[in-house]
């Protein structure tokens, strides 16, 4: 089976072709980071316009790299949500137009299902599995007992992990997106500043990062008032230590309690070196295998959408021509 994937939920225009849900044939990503950088974040109108401009170019490249043509494609999978509505609409409408013109089945995909299925491009899933999702808009623990079904066992009550990274980065006057910059600084600093860890209730797998973010603001502010200056490296290292401590501890606890056969990590923050190292070390002490995707598959791409779409295709799920962008689509 060859599935064509389309992803436009945020600021990357991406098209990919994936074979059997496990093998990348082509994977083209046009990033808009340079256009949004000077605004310190993604500007929705600019994102939509870029998607319109890039879509046909990226599509053509995906076919060129694949040596396939339309007759080889079994179905078109597209991110239907969540994300920026104007950005999603460009991908959904492109997918609908192509499905109609080329007479191919259409499959709407949840963006986070995509992030999860990025892992299957590396290694086959073992159920039950636990997925730690850490991205720009989501921080969740999801239990999967079979393909295409998702049970939410914990989620953030306020900021997502990636959002916290980007906000703290902005306080430290680092460029957008801030995650990778904090990651780099953290490796050069000491986690010498005492910052809180939001454990919440004993039996909760939920997360909270807004208190940590406020603690960082206060720490910087108080130091300034005392006429001291803290090293950016140490702030980054201390912040990152708090985030990683909570994420790894809760993930290990959930993995043990639910007796999972595999743990996977997904989303942009899964690219974080400190998090990857900490999770690898903690799971090495257990007998549960940990799967961490390669960096290029952590952030938004269309191969992950095609991979998740392949499961829907095999399960006979199809979307109609009434498929619409849904910015607050739930993962089920
Ligand atoms: P969502 O997937 O929830 O809809 P999104 O698609 O915007 O949100 P992703 O593209 O998955 O999010 O990830 C982007 C986020 O990952 C940004 O917040 C970015 O700062 C963060 N990020 C990327 N690399 C790193 C890193 N090395 N360390 C920490 N954060 C990182
Ligand atoms: Mg992005
Ligand atoms: Fe994403």
UniProtKB/TrEMBL annotation:
Q: Which cofactor does it need?
A: Fe(2+)
Top EC class for this record: transferase
Catalyses: L-threonylcarbamoyladenylate + adenosine(37) in tRNA = N(6)-L-threonylcarbamoyladenosine(37) in tRNA + AMP + H(+)
Q: Which residues bind substrate?
A: 133-137, 166, 179, 183, 272
Which CDD domains has this protein been placed in?
ASKHA_NBD_TsaD_bac
EC number(s) recorded for this UniProt protein: 2.3.1.234
Q: What keywords appear on the UniProt entry? A: Acyltransferase, Cytoplasm, Iron, Metal-binding, Transferase, tRNA processing
Q: Which GO terms describe its molecular function?
A: iron ion binding; tRNA N(6)-L-threonylcarbamoyladenine synthase activity
Q: Where in the cell is it found?
A: Cytoplasm
Q: Name one GO biological process term.
A: tRNA threonylcarbamoyladenosine modification
Give Gene Ontology CC terms: cytoplasm
Task: Tell me which residues bind Fe cation.
Answer: 111, 115, 300
Q: Which domain of life is it from?
A: Bacteria
Name any one Pfam family assigned in the record: TsaD
Which note does the record give on the cofactor?
Binds 1 Fe(2+) ion per subunit.
**Gene3D superfamilies annotated for this entry?**
3.30.420.40
Role, per record = Required for the formation of a threonylcarbamoyl group on adenosine at position 37 (t(6)A37) in tRNAs that read codons beginning with adenine. Is involved in the transfer of the threonylcarbamoyl moiety of threonylcarbamoyl-AMP (TC-AMP) to the N6 group of A37, together with TsaE and TsaB. TsaD likely plays a direct catalytic role in this reaction.
PANTHER family noted in UniProt = TRNA N6-ADENOSINE THREONYLCARBAMOYLTRANSFERASE, TRNA N6-ADENOSINE THREONYLCARBAMOYLTRANSFERASE, MITOCHONDRIAL
NCBIfam families, alphabetically? gcp_kae1, T6A_TsaD_YgjD
Q: Protein name, please?
A: tRNA N6-adenosine threonylcarbamoyltransferase
Species name for this entry?
A: Ornithinibacillus caprae
């Amino acid at each position: 089976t060859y599935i064509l994937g389309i992803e436009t939920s945020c600021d990357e225009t991406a098209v990919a072709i994936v074979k059997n849900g496990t093998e990348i044939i082509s994977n083209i990503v046009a990033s808009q980071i340079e256009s949004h950088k000077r605004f310190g974040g993604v500007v929705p109108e600019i994102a939509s316009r870029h998607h319109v401009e890039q879509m046909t170019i990226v599509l053509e490249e995906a076919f060129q790299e694949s040596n396939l043509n339309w007759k080889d494609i079994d179905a078109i999978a597209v991110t239907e949500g969540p994300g920026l509505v104007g950005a999603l609409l460009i991908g959904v409408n492109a997918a609908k137009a192509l499905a109609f013109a080329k007479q191919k089945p259409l499959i709407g995909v949840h963006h986070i299902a995509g992030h999860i299925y990025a892992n299957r491009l590396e290694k086959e899933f073992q159920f039950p599995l636990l997925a730690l999702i850490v991205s720009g808009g989501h921080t969740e623990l999801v239990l999967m007992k079979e393909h295409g079904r998702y049970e939410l066992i914990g989620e953030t009550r306020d900021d997502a992990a990636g959002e916290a990274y980007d906000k703290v980065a902005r306080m430290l006057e680092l460029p957008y997106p801030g995650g990778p910059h904090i990651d780099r600084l953290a490796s050069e600093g000491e986690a010498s500043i005492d910052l809180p860890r939001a454990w919440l209730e004993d039996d909760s797998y939920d997360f909270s990062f807004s208190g940590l973010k406020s603690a960082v603001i206060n720490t910087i502010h108080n130091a300034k008032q005392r006429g001291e200056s803290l090293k950016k490296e140490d702030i980054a290292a201390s912040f990152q230590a708090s985030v990683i401590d909570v994420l790894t501890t809760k993930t290990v606890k959930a993995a043990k309690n639910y007796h999972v056969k595999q743990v996977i990590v997904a989303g942009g923050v899964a690219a974080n070196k400190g998090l990857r190292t900490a999770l690898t070390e903690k799971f090495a002490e257990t007998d549960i295998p940990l799967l961490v995707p390669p960096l290029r598959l952590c952030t938004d791409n269309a191969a992950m959408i095609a991979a998740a779409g392949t499961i829907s295709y095999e399960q006979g799920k199809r979307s109609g021509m009434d498929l619409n962008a849904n910015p607050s689509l739930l993962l089920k």
